[in-house]
Each structure stands twice: as structure tokens, then as C-alpha cells.
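Notebook entry, structure prediction.
Reason for the run: the old model in the group folder had no record of what sequence produced it. Starting over properly, with the input documented here first.
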Amino acid sequence: MIRSIIAMLTVLMLGAPALAQVPPFPSAFRTQDIATNGVTIHVRVGGKGPAVLLLHGYGETGDMWAPMAADLARDHTVIVPDLRGLGLSSKPAGGFDKKTQAGDIAGVMDALKIAKAHLVTHDIGNMVGYAFAVQHPERVRRFVLIDAPLPGVGPWEEILKNPLLWHFRFGGPDMERLVAGRERIYLDRFWNEFSATPATFTEASREHYAQLYAMPGAMHSGFLQFAAFDQDAIDNKAFLAAKGKLSMPVLAIGGEKSFGPMMATVMRFAASNVQEGIIPGSGHWIMEENPRATTSIVRAFLEQGT
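New structure, fully documented this time:
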């Protein structure tokens, strides 16, 4: 009997990814898998007070937010999901348009009995957050978007012409075969080219995320996030035409060496009350490159609403 139990545990341990160490969430945080909208969303929850929802983007998972979550949990309830198909969330066959993923977020909030929250988002998280905010404005107190555009909004077509963004159109069965077993090589390109100083994206973080993206279905899901951009652009244009600009306070943050003030330029096409923020010395990976400044500017903005 004991031998059987040991053998079973050994199999489980060998089958699970042995993740490299990244900054941990506080021990008081709990994890929960929430079934909603045809998917299971892995969520970290901690703290007490007004709710804040943190949404990650491509090349990372909700783990990116650990330093900010630790700070905000002092006086907020902090909710950190992995987007559908990424991290420890399930890998469904579809539903990667951001309008559908907004339903994932609504389901997570409903399951946690959170009626209203601040949104803090990065990269593709911006797109999911916007789709949620425009469909459920009554559930969003303040909205922080960090260093990525919105499909179909403002200068989207000009942004697409940037040669650094070739990966927006990269995907499909042959591309998946090319990167299979080479996830670290593929992701290193983003972590290097989109950083102001690539060394700030540590080896531990690179190994951690590369292992998560090497899980079955993860790279496929990541490619589908980008493949949905055309539909996202259609949906966002329809949202703007039908609902107009967001009215809640918005903070549009760019990395100094990345989107910079362009983030506020983009968001003024989609929101009527926009403040601009810049993370000094940072490229795209704000929580890797300058987590202290990022956390500080986000906290200051959220506190304006108290």
C-alpha cells in the first residue's frame, strides 16, 4: 500500500512542471480554480478591502503581479487570474476573442461575490480588461492599462505596421511545430527585444514562464490570443459606436522605452477621463524592469478614488 502511494506521488511529481523560482505571492493568498463560461480559470486571492483585479498578458501569467499584489493586499482584496489558455487555467479549443474572455472575468467576480473592482491590466490583459469595462462599466471603479494598444482603437492600423510586431500574425499548426520544445527560444525574443535592459528579466523568471508555456496546449492558446485580434478590432469598433467612450477614470501607463505617452494617446480614443503615466527606465515588461515605480503609480491612482 505504502509503495503504491509513493509510486503515485512520484508520477504526479514527475508529471508536473518543476517551475523556477519567481517572486512569490504572500503566504496569506489562496488559489482557487473557478469553472465559468466554458473554461476553468486559475485565480489567486488575498487581502481585504476594495477589490482590485490584475490581468496579465502574453509571455507571462498572473505570477507577474506578485510584488504589486503584496503591496495592494495591505488594504485591498486582490484577485489575480490566469487568462484562459495560459498559466494554470484550462486550455479550451476556442473563445480567445476578448469579448468572450470578458465573460471569464465576469464569472470570476461573480464566483467570488465581487460586485465592483478596480482593473489593472498589462499587454493582452488590456484588451480583455477593455472588453469587460465597456460591457460592464458599472462594475469598474478605476481602470489602469499598461503598455499595449487596443485592437481597432485609435492608431491601431499604424501600430500594426511596426516590424517588431510580426508575431501578431504568427501562428498555426506549422508555427506550433517550429516552436515545440523551443518555447524558451521563442519567448526570449520578446523578453529581450521589448525590454529596455534585457538582464532585468531574470533567468529565474525566463525559466519559470518558459516551463508554463511549454505545458500542453499553452503555445497553441497563446497563438489563438493573437489570432483573435481581427475579431477584437471588429468588436471594439462596435463597442465604441454603440456605447461611446468609457467614463470611469483611466490611467494609461507606458514604459519609457516602450509605448511611453502613446498609451494615453490610444486611450483617449476610448475613454473620456484619461491620465498619463510613464514608468522610467522601463521597456514593456514593467513588473520585471521597474516593479517599485509601477506599483507606486498604480497605488497612487487607485487612492485618488478613496
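Summary: The beta strands are 30-36, 39-47, 51-55, 77-81, 117-122, 140-146, 250-255, 274-279.
The old model has been moved to the deprecated folder.
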